[in-house]
């Protein structure tokens, strides 16, 4: 007897292997998946501008990168003793104005190169809710704890999200027509927006994705992260203590589903070898000078050398 339902996921026709270069953009769940890519030593870049939750924020920074648009002093502001940019996450904020501008423009240039070279673009949308800065009427990616009175909160329409998705794809394809896109909706629940509002937000994202993207195309696919969390893992034991974010067990399960669908079987042996090395590197000996530990260290160095000989980009 089956006590849960499993979501069927089509096998990708453009599998990720160790020759791939992955660029991940989007919500904090994009970071969860990117950490798995990092662990297994794939070539992966994630959120150079920090976590981005909604489609318009992602589209805007992709546009900056593709068109080579640079940030100026007008794009940043001083608040709570730090310089911030409404288009980037607060992780990039600094106490020095020039440093922030230089960082932002360096990231723009690097992101363009990453998009040009990428074999796979993974986009994770988190919410349809946006904040519009009243003074400029511009949609922001992050409010940086500026008073909420200075923003209007809006729900992006399905049509507007469709436009943003299409623009993002077209911009990247203009510099990299061979890139493969994987879209997903974050399973993180944005309860601060309200329970009903969170479901409405996710529904807009899912509706827009399926309306604007023809997932029958070989270079476009949809991975059901949100659906796996809501249906296969429909129990609070699969959430962290905040009951909003997936637990480590849930992240591992969703990663395994992703692996089966989007990572080529030719990479599995190397992934296993890398995992063995990673676990060995975390080992702490009670007696580092013992003969057994010296043999362990020598064996580990040999395993690393063997993998690096095949994939020189790997660093341990």
UniProtKB/TrEMBL annotation:
Keywords: Coiled coil, Hydrolase
Enzyme class: hydrolase
One function term, GO molecular function aspect: hydrolase activity
EC number, UniProt record: 3.1.-.-
Coiled coil: 94-121
Lineage top rank: taxon: Bacteria
Every GSCFA domain range: 21-258
Official protein name in the record: GSCFA domain-containing protein
Species of origin: Flavobacterium frigidarium
Lineage: Bacteria, Pseudomonadati, Bacteroidota, Flavobacteriia, Flavobacteriales
């Amino acid at each position: 007897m089956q006590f849960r339902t499993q979501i069927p996921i089509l096998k990708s026709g453009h599998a990720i292997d160790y020759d791939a270069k992955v660029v991940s953009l989007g919500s904090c769940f994009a970071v969860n998946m990117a950490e798995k890519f990092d662990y297994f030593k794939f070539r992966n870049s994630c959120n150079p501008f920090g976590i981005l939750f909604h489609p318009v924020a992602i589209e805007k920074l992709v546009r900056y990168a593709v068109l080579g648009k640079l940030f100026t002093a007008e794009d940043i502001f001083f608040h709570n003793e730090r310089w911030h940019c409404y288009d980037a996450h607060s992780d990039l904020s600094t106490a020095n104005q020039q440093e922030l501008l230089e960082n932002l423009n360096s990231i723009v240039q690097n992101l363009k190169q990453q998009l040009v070279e990428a074999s796979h673009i993974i986009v994770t949308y988190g919410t349809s809710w946006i904040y519009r800065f009243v003074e400029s009427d511009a949609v922001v990616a992050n409010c940086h704890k500026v008073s909420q009175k200075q923003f209007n909160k809006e729900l992006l329409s399905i049509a507007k999200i469709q436009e943003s998705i299409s623009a993002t794809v077209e911009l990247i394809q203009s510099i990299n027509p061979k890139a493969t896109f994987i879209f997903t909706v974050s399973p993180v629940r944005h309860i601060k927006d309200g329970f009903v509002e969170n479901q409405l937000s996710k529904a807009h994202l899912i509706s827009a994705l399926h309306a604007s993207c023809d997932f029958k195309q070989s270079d476009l696919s949809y991975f059901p992260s949100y659906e796996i969390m809501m249906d296969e893992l429909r129990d609070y034991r699969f959430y962290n203590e905040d009951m909003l974010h997936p637990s480590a067990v849930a992240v591992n399960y969703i990663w395994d589903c992703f692996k089966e669908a989007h990572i080529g079987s030719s990479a599995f042996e190397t992934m296993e070898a890398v995992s063995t090395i990673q676990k060995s590197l975390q080992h702490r000996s009670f007696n580092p000078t013992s003969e057994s530990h010296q043999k362990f260290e020598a064996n580990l160095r040999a395993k690393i050398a063997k993998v690096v000989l095949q994939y020189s980009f790997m660093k341990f």
